[in-house]
Design a protein that fits this description.
2 copies of one chain form a homodimer. Helix content of chain A is 60%, strand content 10%. By secondary structure, chain A is mainly alpha-helical. Chain A contains 7 helices and 2 strands. The first copy, chain A, has a two-stranded antiparallel ribbon. In chain A, a hairpin with a 5-residue loop joins β1 and β2. Chain A binds a DNA duplex through α5.
DNA sequence: CGGTATCCATAGGGATACTG
DNA sequence: CAGTATCCCTATGGATACCG
């Protein structure tokens, strides 16, 4: 029955939700990419991403660490320095990101190709 | 240099952002799935998704329509009835969703398996 | 039925200052 | 340097009532 199907589908949706929670939001991917690129330190990452505040960066880094996409190490010395690095696990995301990328490209084509017939399409 | 690379990466991120905007959020996929399942009418969709308010559904349907994932048709008669249907374009999302699904499954394994050790983060 | 309009609560984000 | 703490503010969402 329809209801049952819907229940099945929406529970099958849970892992999808998980993934979206992990990489969704305004900053997560930007930060991850910054770290992939080799930025290691808090300020360094912060500077590499315009408009990103320390509070948000701090929170996002914790999330990324909790999801084992990055590691955090505190180095000896003064002033304190920390080092963030991507994990192997984080690299499994690249395929997903590629898929999202491809669909996004294709979606734009779709939206714009149809523009000739319908002017008033407010898009994305 | 690093800055340039980051610019390149983040601009390559735009299509990814587009995709996340299209399917992200709390309700978009639930609504799309409901429609994929054959629910066509406003109330019908609303009832199929617990906790979804009319205001939000209304907005989300507009977004989905703007992104050409669904079509909206107003049927003759009284009271008014509308009919929402999935587009062909919407079906191209299924592959993306599958990818998100698979990663989500895998991610859970990763998170739960790794309690003991910190390194060895190899996953698929 | 298929929505808008309205009011209100809340979470989250920006800016800034501050601590170890 | 690496963050917390604080204040503030707006965007979103729930609940409800109402209109064509």
């Amino acid at each position: 029955m329809k209801k049952k199907e819907h229940k099945e589908c929406t529970s099958a949706l849970l892992p999808v939700r998980d993934t979206l929670d992990v990489i969704g939001g305004k900053w997560k991917l930007l930060i991850l990419i910054s770290i992939w690129e080799g930025n290691k330190h808090f300020r360094e990452i912060e500077r590499s991403i315009p408009k990103l505040s320390t509070k948000v960066l701090s929170k996002e880094l914790k999330d990324l660490e909790a999801n084992q996409l990055i590691t955090r190490a505190v180095l000896n010395g003064f002033p304190v320095r920390t080092e963030y690095k991507p994990t192997q696990h984080s690299k499994t995301l690249k395929k997903v990101i590629l898929e999202l990328h491809n669909w996004g490209i294709n979606h734009r084509k779709q939206i714009f190709s149809d523009k000739s017939e319908k002017d008033n399409l407010s898009v994305v």
